[in-house]
Amino acid sequence: MAIKNNILSQEEYEHNFSDIHPPFERLSSALVEANRCLFCYDAPCTNACPTSIDVPQFIKQIVSRNEKGSAKTIFDSNIFGAGCSRVCPVEKLCEGACVFNLLDEPPIPIAKLQRYSTEKAIAGKWDLYLRKKSIGKKVAIVGAGPAGLSCAHGLSLEGIDVTIFEKNPRGGGLMTYGVAAYKVTPEFCQDEIDWITSIGGIEIKYNSMLGRDFTLESLKTNYDAIFLAIGVGVTRELDIPGEELEGVVDAINFIHGIRSMKYSEIQIGDKVAVIGMGMTAIDAATQSKRLGAKEVNLIYRRTEKEKPCTDAELELARLDGCNIIWLASPAEIIGENGKVTGIKCNKLSLVEPDSSGRAAPKLTGETFTLSADMIIKATGQLPFSDLLEIEKIEHSKGKINTFDNQKTNLSGVFAGGDCVNGGEEVVNAVQDGKIGALSILKYLCC
Amino acid sequence: MTNIENNFLGIKSPNPFWLASAPPTDKKINVTRAFEAGWGGVVWKTLGDQVKNVSSRYAALNHDGQRMVGLNNIELISDRPLEINLKEIKEIIREWPDRAVIASLMANTDRKSWHELIKRVQDTGCHGFELNFGCPHGMTERGMGAVVGQDPEIAKMVVEWVMEVAQIPVITKLTPNVHSVVPTAKAVVEAGTNGLSLINTIQSLMGVDLDTLIPYPNVGGQTAFGGYCGPAVKPIALKMLTTIGQNEMMKNIPVSGIGGISTWKDAVEFMLMGAGNVQVCTAVMKHGFKIINDLCGGLNNWMDEKGFATLEDFRGLSLNKVTHWEALDLNYHIVARIDQDKCIHCGLCYISCEDAAHQSISITKGIPYNKYMIKENECVGCNLCKLVCPVEDCISMIEQRKGDEYLNWHEFVRRGLPLNDH
Predict the structure, then answer these.
(1) What is the pLDDT of residue B134?
(2) Can you say how many angstroms the Cα of residue A266 is from the centroid of all Cα atoms in its chain?
(3) pLDDT tens track for A70-124
(4) CB–CB of A349/A334 below 8 Å?
(5) Prior bond to B217 cis, omega within 30?
(6) Looking at residue B142, what is its pLDDT?
(7) Considering A65, A184, A202, B155, which has the largest number of Cβ atoms within 10 A of its Cβ?
(8) Interface-testing mutation among B64, B342, B349, B359, with chain A (most A C-beta atoms within 10 A)
(9) CB spacing of B348 vs A40 below 8 angstroms
(10) pLDDT tens digits along A399-438
């Protein structure tokens, strides 16, 4: 048992990390599905989309071979329509609401069709938008993730000069650094960002971090308005003995590594235990397996019914051969010579719902121990509370308080995305950015 | 037990499904395969002076993913030597004694040409002739096909020539490229034709290629009007068929129904409107001869369920159910009803009614599913919601008569009844 890299052959890595939902190979394939769409009125799929993409419209535009129109329908609502088509949990959004579910028939593959139109646009570098002439107003955006870029696009279109400050060397936020590689590649994210910023008027300053390289005050001096899209930070601590041992890693950092290194360079354990059952936990578990871990245990304190990930994601983990352990919480990480050798867990049972509305787990007094050489913590990310305190931004447990379309307590400062909602889907962040841009335009009297 | 054997003008076939005169019937190979598959008869592709065809001959109308809802062609009559066709017809008749073999004919519009052609083809032993007065392209420029069918006088003259020498039943095939088929039909019946068949194809321009700007089918950068057929033309054919069956002079003339017949249901509809049998082409051009299995099987099952023993038992039964608008009952009133348990909340009924009918459906917003309900007092019973609904039996039209008695428009006016009842 040991943590090591370069376990698989190059072919195996490529196979394991190839596109999990391959796109339509050709128009005829897309048309088979597009033609099934009923063109619902006030469509449930559209209502289920946080950005309200007019799904029936873009699908009918595929049918009528108005591909540019189809892509534009999507981007008008969601400038990250291409990325969202790959990472959205569609079974609980658009596809989950498709009326065909009520006929017990497979829903329209909306994400796949959306990918069809949007990728053509990005690959073909279609100039679907024309930026208005600069009106001489400047807005600073902190964070080049989905919220920040969505806001930037909306502002730049109207002639605002936008500068984005991004702490990482690449844009895209968690799209680039926090999603499983078999969903989107960093290269895809870069293409998407390049396409979004190709309208002009958007400058991205990389390796530039709020609190370290600049302050909010300095931005206020130089810009007419500010949009904060700083996301959330590292995974919360487990607060149990042994957390300092070598082999205990943070899921966000682990996935960040997969996104920024070669697969063969990534250290992976023989037996991996992943704590948590959210989308990030699943991404960490499945990718551990795909990097060559022999055994992966996913540990969650509630049951399948309460799990935060979708059914599709759980199924993916199961198909990848991950073990799922319900009703267990980590009690102690066991080690030898400073390295992880196992994890001791409490067995739990569920009682009355807690404040989150889900059944609360309770200790049963029984424990069990799993052998492990790597522990991945994926129990939700901590917000940047300290930073918000320093900058005097009102927040609730680290989530920025916003009101009246993404305004914060500070005049001229707006916020959206994970730093406001605590960590939801990419599509929610895109919507915040879109609304934020409209709100800033109104503030600037444009 | 049902019996679907067909007797049309004394020509017998094991079922009422003939293949129409067209590419599927242009040579022995096809016809043999058709008979092996179970087709009741064929109308051999039109014989006449040998022609030369162009390459690129068909174009299709596709709709919402359905291919060939309509088809058009600019192919002419048989482009094979007459002798070969005649030899093959003879062989087919010998090899398939229980099947119907009809020869479709087209000759120059002179007595001698028709007489010669009739005599030569008659020698094959074929069971009947079908006179092609309908082909709307190519042959018309040479004074044949539809130009004959479009002029009752010419049509009558040709049929008279034909009847002078024909010793087997003669069916005259009518063109739909007229305001009404009745004048030509009457003319040819007067001239002695034994039966009629309808419809031939409808003149059409299928569409334009938006890249090249050349209409379909593209023959070296140009096209010509073609003959339109397939499922899309069925309602037109049924209407024309009905006008023959309802005509006092022609109601007893056997008619072979043609026009977009793809399923056994289509065939039954043609027979209910008076057709003695039916001819099929486009459906075979799309799916091959195998469709005969379901044509026969479906017809058999339907007759069984309805208690009809023979084809004659139901032929023409719906003819008297088509009347003039003025005779329709104004007291008959239906109202839509949505089965909420079956509704999938697609909203198609709502938006069609709201934008295009009578604003008679209410919407109650829900997440993510809206609820749609009929405003019974507003509903005029137009059927549109039921037609657009994608769920079987979700919307039904419930009878809610305005009055017990039958009340037609003439009586309505005579009594001076008020118009605004909505």
Answers:
(1) 83
(2) 21
(3) 999 999 999 999 999 999 999 999 999 999 999 999 999 999 999 999 999 999 9
(4) no
(5) yes
(6) 80
(7) B155
(8) B64
(9) yes
(10) 999 999 999 999 999 999 999 999 999 999 999 999 999 9
Domains of chain A are: 20-123 (1.10.1060.10), 138-233+382-443 (3.50.50.60), 248-377 (3.50.50.60)
Q: Considering all CA atoms of chain B, what is the largest pairwise distance in Å, rounded to the nearest integer?
A: 78
Q: Give the per-residue pLDDT at A6.
A: 86
Instruction: Tell which CATH architecture fits domain B6-320.
Output: Alpha-Beta Barrel (3.20)
CATH classification (class only), B325-415? alpha beta
Low-confidence ranges of chain B (pLDDT < 50): none
The distance in angstroms from the start CA to the end CA of chain A is 62
**Under an 8 Å CB criterion, which residues of A touch B?**
31-32, 34-36, 38-45, 47-48, 63, 97, 99-100, 102-103
Instruction: Encode pLDDT of A355-389 as tens digits.
Output: 777 788 899 999 999 999 999 999 988 899 999 99
Q: Is the dihedral of CA B283, B285, B287, B288 positive or negative?
A: positive
Amino acid B420: pLDDT: 72
Catalytic residue among B126, B135, B281, B389: B135
Tokens of B132: 């092609």
- Does residue A282 contact residue A315 with C-beta atoms inside 8 Å? no
**Rounded Cα–Cα distance for residues A320 and A7 (Å):** 17
What is the C-alpha radius of gyration for chain A, rounded to an integer number of angstroms? 22
Task: Tell me how far apart the alpha carbons of residues A363 and A106 are, in angstroms, rounded to a whole number.
Answer: 41
A36 vs B contacts (CB less than 8 Å) = 65
CA distances (Å), A349 to each of A326, A346, B122, in order? 10, 10, 92
How far lies A286's CA from each of A247, A315, A341, B275, in Å? Answer: 18, 11, 21, 66
The residues spanned by each domain of chain B are 6-320, 325-415
Burial A174-189 (b: 16+ CB within 10 A, else e): bbbbbbbbbbbbbebb
Are B348 and A97 in contact (CB < 8 Å)? no
Across A259-276, b (16+ Cβ under 10 Å) vs e yields beeebeebbbbbbbbbbb
User: Per-residue pLDDT tens for A261-295?
Assistant: 999 999 999 999 999 999 999 999 999 999 999 99
Cβ-Cβ contacts under 8 Å, A32 against chain B: 65
CB contacts, 8 Å: A41 with chain B:
346-348, 350-351
State the average pLDDT over residues A150-173. Answer: 97
Examine the pLDDT at A230 and tell me if it is beyond 60: yes
pLDDT at B421: 58
